[in-house]
Specification:
single chain; about 160 residues; alpha+beta; 6-stranded mixed sheet; 4-stranded antiparallel sheet; 10 strands; about 35% strand; elongated
Length: about 160
């Protein structure tokens, strides 16, 4: 019998790659132009480096917890209060960012839309969005295989 996947990558979608590339290009260009004119705008690329620790590297389901792997740490969500898991590539459409990162290496932070209300986003590819509802919060993630991810979470709640 096949063992169920517990580790999932967080690949970048085209939108994230485009926004991140454009932002880095603009930051470097402005820094280069400002440096040539003796201004301190060469510090702008520091903003890109500050976003690096918040990159979503992957997800894991282990020991009754959902783990969100970042560059600098792991965010943990206990699965004992898991209510539902829904694959929804449209989950973030119509959202506004309340606090967080809107596309510099990830879409992370607090967002809101009509359908989900307030939710936390840990997304690299909107097209792979999975809505995970807990008793007291909703999160959106984007694993490389949304179907296998949902199966892994569903299996944990049925134990």
């Amino acid at each position: 019998m096949n063992e169920m996947r517990q580790e999932f990558k967080a690949p970048w979608g085209r939108l994230l790659a485009g926004i991140s590339s454009a932002a880095v290009f603009v930051l470097l260009f402005v820094a280069w132009k400002g440096h040539a004119e003796g201004e301190l705008v060469w510090l702008l690329p520091l903003g890109a480096f500050l976003a690096v620790p918040f990159i979503v590297r992957g997800y894991a389901v282990e020991n009754g917890r959902l783990l969100i792997r970042r560059v600098g740490w792991v965010k943990t969500f206990p699965l004992d209060e898991l209510e539902s898991v829904e694959i929804d590539p449209q989950a973030m459409h119509g959202s506004i960012r309340l606090f967080g990162n809107g596309g510099l290496f990830s879409f992370t932070g607090l967002y809101r839309n009509k359908r989900l209300g307030n939710y936390r986003s840990f997304v690299n590819d909107w097209k792979r969005s999975v809505v995970v509802r807990f008793a007291n919060r909703t999160i959106v993630v984007s694993p490389d295989d949304p179907v296998a991810f949902k199966q892994a979470l569903d299996a944990r709640t049925n134990q």
